Amino acid sequence: MAHLQRLWAPWRNCFIAHPQPRRCIFCAAKRSRADRAHYVVARGRHVFTLLNLYPYNNGHVMIAPYRHVGTLTTLAPAEWSEMLQMSQRIMTRLTRLLHAQGFNVGMNLGRVAGAGIPGHLHLHVVPRWQGDTNVMPIIAHTKVISQSLDELYTMLATSRRRR
Ligand SMILES: [Zn+2]
User: Fold this and answer.
1) Under a CB-based contact definition with an 8 Å cutoff, are residues 1 and 116 in contact?
2) Helix-helix angle 149-162:77-98, to 10 degrees
3) Domain count of the chain?
4) What is the dihedral sign for C-alpha 77, 56, 157, 22?
5) Alpha carbon separation from 77 to 122, 124, 137 (Å, rounded)
6) Closest CA to 87 of 122, 135, 137
7) Which of 42, 114, 133, 152 could form an SS bridge with 108, CB 3.0 to 4.6 Å?
């Protein structure tokens, strides 16, 4: 899906003005206390959840360990366990808030497997809806994301406080 160009209606200018940095976005988000600026929607003891700035679909989040590790074999059992628990919680919230009908959950481990940031593993959680793979990506190599990241962040951050 990485070859798809996306339509960035509300935030395209920002994307062009701020190309993806080479530093590790997960470590930057981990160190920062500005959760909104980094779109961090949940923090656990070992792992945290943030919105994907380049989503495959609306509601696409990533769950990463605080440690900068790139392989599953270097992940501690407590990190792996909390990562799965956090994925359950975020799927519950995405189902409730966005009425997701299904999910793709997975990891790209290593650059040859498609990892954009191979040094810091992360679990993708991508909500799916009936008919979301419409003809537009096929004919135009373009995917429209219907909800802005700020709007989604506010929705998830608010639901976290209410929980
Ligand atoms: Zn990192």
Assistant:
1) no
2) 110
3) 1
4) positive
5) 15, 19, 38
6) 122
7) 114
Expressed in angstroms and rounded, the spacing between residue 147 Cα and the centre of ligand 1 is 27
pLDDT in tens, 16-65: 444 444 689 999 999 998 999 999 999 999 999 999 998 888 999 999 99
Q: Which domain holds residue 9?
A: 5-162
Residue 146: give its domain's CATH number: 3.30.428.10
Residue 68 to residue 120: CA distance in whole angstroms: 5
Q: Which residues pair with 126 in a beta bridge?
A: 104
H-helix or E-strand spanning residue 128: strand 123-128
C-alpha–C-alpha distance, residues 34 and 77, integer Å: 28
pTM: 0.79
For residue 6, give both structure tokens. Answer: 């996306």
Give distance in angstroms: CA of 68 to centre of ligand 1: 4
Q: Is position 122 annotated as part of the catalytic site?
A: yes
Is 70 exceeded by the pLDDT of residue 137?
A: no
Closest CA relative to residue 59, chosen from 106, 104, 107, 126:
126
Distance CA 20, CA 64 (A): 18
Q: Given 38, 60, 122, 124, which residue is catalytic? A: 122
